């Protein structure tokens, strides 16, 4: 998850055009590639917040998100900051 993953790169890796990969991915998962990737990264960040004492910055780097984007996701999905999420859990 820490690697930067582009849609084009992943499609090329599985020998599909961007369009075909996008269509099939959405069909199979019900999500866009970026939505799915953000969900995976967010879930991993939640686990790391609960299981480690790593800083938000380190967790962000580990899951492939800038700390500002990680904070934004926590505000959108949990309505709290990552620090408050950690305190609650």
Determine the number of helices (DSSP H or I, runs of at least 4 residues). 6
Mean pLDDT equals: 94
Q: Strand-and-helix sequence, N→C?
A: HHHHHH
Helix content estimate: over 70%
Q: State the total count of DSSP E strands.
A: 0
Topology, pairings included?
Elements: H1 7-13, H2 18-29, H3 33-51, H4 56-63, H5 67-78, H6 82-88
Helix pairs in contact: 1-2, 3-4
Name the features.
89 residues; mainly alpha; 6 helices; 73% helix
How would you sum up this structure in a few lines?
The protein is an all-alpha fold and 89 residues long. The protein has helices at residues 7-13, 18-29, 33-51, 56-63, 67-78, 82-88.
Give an account of the 3D structure:
With 89 residues, the protein is mainly α. The chain is 73% helix and 0% strand. It is elongated.
């Amino acid at each position: 998850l820490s690697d930067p993953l582009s849609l084009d790169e992943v499609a090329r890796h599985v020998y599909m055009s961007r369009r075909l990969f996008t269509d099939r991915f959405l069909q199979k998962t019900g999500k866009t590639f970026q939505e799915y990737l953000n969900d995976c990264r967010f879930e991993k960040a939640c686990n790391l917040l609960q299981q480690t004492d790593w800083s938000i910055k380190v967790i962000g780097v580990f899951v492939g998100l800038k700390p500002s984007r990680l904070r934004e996701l926590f505000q959108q999905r949990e309505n709290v900051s990552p620090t408050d999420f950690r305190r609650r859990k």
